[in-house]
Specification:
The complex is a heterodimer. By secondary structure, chain A is mostly helical. Helix content of chain A is 84%, strand content 0%. The N terminus of chain B is likely disordered. The chains are: A mainly alpha, B alpha/beta.
């Protein structure tokens, strides 16, 4: 165990890159959970990984392939916007399988893709450079004001779809903009945190936060706090014990998320018994 | 409001349908001609399947117009309360945040509902959540308010309070179009009724 590694300037860039996504992904996850579309996030991440590998094979920049594939997945998802919940879920699962199938085939047949594929699936946070941090910061600067505008509209579209339509606004257009934002976030995050690391940050914090929060605002804050807390712990533990970062992050999120759900259930049943 | 001012307000037609036939895959109702003016409460009556909810949807652009037309006053702001409660199970949205989504204020809310503003929507009773969602649409900044079965899930006290709130909203200058199967409620609150 080497505690000095935590303060090594070599890891400052990767730390802040991951920290940006530890804030953004749980935030986006809250609206995905609102819409019960968390599976779409995994599909976007997997498709982005496949796009990056395709770009690598074609000699293009990885980010271009990842972003283009994720945006294409968001547009495909948009086609299922009006479909029944079951059909939507099926569409996300198909996208997920498409991304996975393409990725594995590329990894198996392209010598260059094999190493990169491993990095994309497992995460390569400690090997990110200044360009990753810069793209994360630029994206955050664009996303946060956009979310401020989108948030009330996404909530309106969920709780008052007819009211929204009566005001002449299109719920489908609002959802498309949001989906594109999620696709870009996951494409960028996948290149640092890996497919499952990024997905874990989208999925688990809102799941735990929604049980405790008394309001939407609290839900956002708790979700971000959970994501950042798990990220800090995973970053430190991975460095101290020389372990891969993304699996540690996913395990910490799952452990804390499950503990949160169990604690919530115990407290609720205890409260119910006392009130009887 | 004086009688003269009241009649002047009522002369402003907010919404008009002319021989309107609307539906989804095929026409559900029509031809129907009706008007909704500022300050009046118009009831829409008819058996199940007559097309009352479809008419409200058509007025908001949510159903297909097969023939006839809908004329809206320039710059008209519509508010539509849907029959079904918002899907809020497991979502941490407070009553206050729900009202904020439509721009509705909490002034005038009944005392028994005030504590619900700080509660999550999915931890309220069906009647409390229904009344808050209804209030959000009724008190939204709007010229015309369309209400679909607003008395659903409400107890007699809630229905009585709602009747008063509708009258106050109409007196403030809004036009209200109300669909309900509750004949007593409709007779007590509507200025006139249209049968579909």
């Amino acid at each position: 165990m080497n505690g000095a590694l935590l303060f090594d300037p070599l890891f400052a860039g990767p730390f802040f890159t991951g920290l940006v996504y530890a804030v953004l992904l749980p935030l986006l996850g809250t609206w995905l959970r609102l819409r019960d579309e968390w599976l779409a996030a995994l599909a976007f991440a997997q498709t982005a990984a496949a796009g990056s590998l395709l770009a690598l094979s074609a000699g293009w920049p990885l980010a271009v392939g990842g972003l283009a594939a994720a945006a294409l997945a968001a547009l495909l998802k948009h086609l299922f916007e009006g479909a029944a919940r079951g059909a939507q879920g099926a569409a996300y699962a198909m996208l997920l399988l498409l991304g996975w199938g393409l990725s594995v085939l590329l990894v198996a047949n392209q010598p260059l893709a094999e190493r990169m594929g491993q990095a994309l699936f497992d995460g390569q946070l400690y090997f990110t450079d200044r360009s990753h941090l810069l793209s994360a910061l630029v994206f955050a600067a664009a996303l946060l004001p956009l979310l401020r505008v989108l948030s009330p509209r996404l909530l309106q579209a969920h709780f008052f779809p007819d009211f929204l339509r009566a005001r002449g606004r299109s719920g489908a257009r609002i959802h498309l903009v949001f989906d594109l934002a999620v696709a870009v976030a996951l494409a960028l995050a996948t290149m640092s945190l890996g497919v499952m690391g990024a997905f874990a940050l989208v999925f688990v914090p809102p799941l735990a936060a929604f049980g405790w929060a008394g309001s939407w605002r609290q839900g956002l804050l708790l979700s971000v706090a959970h994501g950042v807390g798990a990220y800090l712990a995973a970053f430190a533990l991975a460095l101290l014990f020389d372990q891969p970062f993304a699996p540690l992050l996913a395990l910490l999120l799952v452990a804390s998320g499950a503990a949160s759900v169990v604690a919530r259930r115990i407290l609720r049943s205890d409260g119910g018994r006392k009130s009887r | 409001m004086s009688g003269g001012a009241d009649s002047a307000v009522r002369q402003t037609v907010l919404l008009r349908t002319e021989a309107l036939c609307a539906g989804y895959a095929q026409p559900v109702f029509g031809p129907l001609s009706l008007t909704l003016a500022r300050g009046e409460i118009v009831g829409l009556a008819g058996p199940n399947g007559a097309g009352k909810s479809t008419l409200l949807a058509a007025l908001c652009g949510g159903a297909r117009v097969f023939s006839g037309r809908i004329v809206r006053a320039p710059g008209l702001r519509l508010s539509l309360q849907q029959q079904q409660l918002p899907a809020g199970e497991g979502i941490p949205l407070s009553g206050r945040e729900l009202l904020a989504l439509t721009g509705a204020g909490a002034d005038g809310l009944p005392e028994w509902l005030r504590p619900c503003l700080a509660e999550r929507l999915d931890r309220l009773s069906g009647g409390q959540a229904q009344f808050l969602a209804l209030w959000a649409c009724l008190q939204a900044p709007a010229d015309a308010v369309l209400l679909d079965e607003p008395t659903n899930n409400l107890d007699p006290a809630g229905i009585a309070f709602l009747a008063g709130a509708l009258r106050r909203r109409a007196q403030s200058g809004a036009g209200l179009l109300v669909v309900s199967h509750d004949e007593r409620f409709m007779a007590s609150v509507c200025d006139r009724q249209v049968a579909l």
